[in-house]
Design goal:
seven-stranded parallel β-sheet; Spore Coat Polysaccharide Biosynthesis Protein SpsA, Chain A; Rossmann fold; alpha/beta; 550 residues; seven-stranded mixed β-sheet; 31% helix
Amino acid sequence: MFNNNKILVVIPVIKASMEIPKMYSRLLKYKPLIAYSIEIAKSSQYVDDVVVTTDDSEIALISEKFGASVIRRSGEEGSFDSVIYDAMVQKEKQAFDEYDIVIIMQPTSPLLKVETLDASIEKFEDFGIDSVISVVEDSHLSWGYDENNERFFPNYIERVTKQDLPKSFRETGAIVASRRGFIQEGSHIGTSINLIQLSKEESLVCDDFDNWAIVENHLKKKRIAFVVNASAEIGTRHIYNCISLASKLSTSEFTFILDEHYELGIKIIRDYGFDCKIYDGVKELYALLEEYSPQIVVNDILDTSEEYMLDLKEKGYFVVNFDDLGVGAQHADVLFDSLYEHDLSEANAFIGYKYCMLKDEFYFQSPKVITQDVNRVLILFEGDDSNNLTEQILDVILSTAYDNKIDIVVDRGYENTEELVSRHESNPLIQIYQNVSNISEFMFKADIIITSASKTMYDACSLAIPTICVCQNDVEMTHSFASEKNGIINMGPGDNLTKQDFASQFVELVNNYELRMEMHDKMNHIDLKHGFENIKSVVQEEYVKFELNR
């Protein structure tokens, strides 16, 4: 009841309107289509009674099961208005009372929100309103057709962009509400009409197979929260991993949640135009998660604590972690690690290159064509390069007979950029770049890449460019992908590497076209462009198990 107005919802099931066989009893994500409208109406804080009018015994049985009253009609269909009027009158006889407001809800709008239904009812607080109709904004450059003159004509005066068009609205059929006096055998709408605007999602209808598929995809949507950070110290690889994942989630909602102390990560996400939420401390993080209410939480924040992970699990989230060697990793529902080796007895661990996520720019780059001569070398070490391998490797290369171009790309965290530039700015063969946004272009131009045993080697491998890896730390020594079988020369830890050993290997690679072709061929046989599909397949399978066990 609203303001002492007794409210009836009538849900008409009319066979003539069905384009899908047995549409209203057909399961839409494990539930009959008719059930959605019944549950929406029954969840309203104002609706007193819900009635389904139908001549189908199966629909009648389903409707009663989901809590609606049923008015059973004979097989002869009257007009739409007469069907609604008859349902109202019969329900009033059963209730020994009259209703004040009657709402017609078409059973083809399962995405309608209860809040929207209640908002439409609240419009009747204005006594001058006879009826309320649901609409969706539909402003486009549209055309009409004159059948008499057999010609098209524009429905606009001036061609302008969509943003500059006057707003226009299309009825959705989800809600048509009227005061009782306007529900008659030949009419169900008054003269003073107000509108309730629906979101695009709410306006979707299941009226044919194509639209059914669209609605089904919306119902299957998951809300995903990416908890991730980036800084000069920890690098940007983790945040770009999540961006690459998010950019491929066409059927899911998502947001990024970032620590306010990691300003670089916040800037990157905002530059991409993604929604992001900022927190200060774990309590604020939990509050943001509770507010957003995701089904899935993705952590790409390196090592997690056991306390943090147990808190997430206690709150009921399905948790996916990336590159996590912390004690909390064991509590993730799924753990992906394309680099680090985990105990294979851990049932939640999925490791190896097939779970690598490349940056989007690498998906449309073709493999490198290997030439006889090496004309350009790229030196690229991620992060702050604390051992300054960039300069050490450059010095060794300059001590050899190699006399072609050298590109150097350093990360934001590299502290020796100014010194490096001042030392080599007079050498026209050396170009130094910092914080580049199109790293794939730099890689593609190179004939040889020298990098660390980080995920950069996957980027190089995706382009099939001969690569020498020098490990920056002990952890990188465990990255087994950096091996001869994958077309990569692994020189081991940088702090143990002699100038002579590196120079000898570098010169051999420059001069040995057959070796470079062999490395190229090995890389070309490694599929690094289906990481998203592999990750998605695992998550979907594990999420089904998660829901079944809840």
